[in-house]
User: What shape does this take?
Amino acid sequence: MDIFLLEDDEAIALGLTYSLEKEGYAVTAAKTVRDARRIIAEKRFSLYILDLTLPDGSGYDICREVKRQGDLPVIFLTAYDEEVNVVMGFDLGADDYIAKPFRLKELLARIRSVLRRYERQSGDAVIVLGDVKVDTAQARVFRGGEEIFLSAMEYRLFLTMLNNRGIVLTRAKLLEELWDVEGDFVNDNTLTVYICRLREKIEKDPAKPEIIKTVRGMGYKIDKS
Assistant: This one.
């Protein structure tokens, strides 16, 4: 199981990585918001552990990026335990919150608890479209029983359409919804590329799409199943 760790304190990061790997987890670590954005754009993880205060931003920024990709589990680490920080973290969709200094056994227990909750929820968060299955709790996509890899932006585009099944989404609306990892708007030409790539991965015949349908003069639509 893959865990993403965002922590700028090298001693804490090394200690946590070592301890988590001893528990059987695979850990990918970053020290800055910039590096974190690059990493999470290329890969989705089973759990995200995010420090709150970073040299170039906040763990809140990365939490927002993660939650745009799907309902993925997030635990915050912070040196501050004021109520306002706790409330803001949960408002962003965080699943748990632990203040430094913390005991390793307590963190491991919270990790297991959060992952169990998501495993229980996953049965109620599966969308099936023909031979394509989307597990939104784990942000995983399968076609014909085999997992297919979608980039963070491709998955975000697909999830936006899935959340609006039966509704025609104009290109303008999709452009509003899709920010790239640097915080800039995706342009119209890039949107076309993402739709083409997504169709190549999920459609039986991308030239004759059955899932993501074009509504001429209006936009795109995924029918209700």
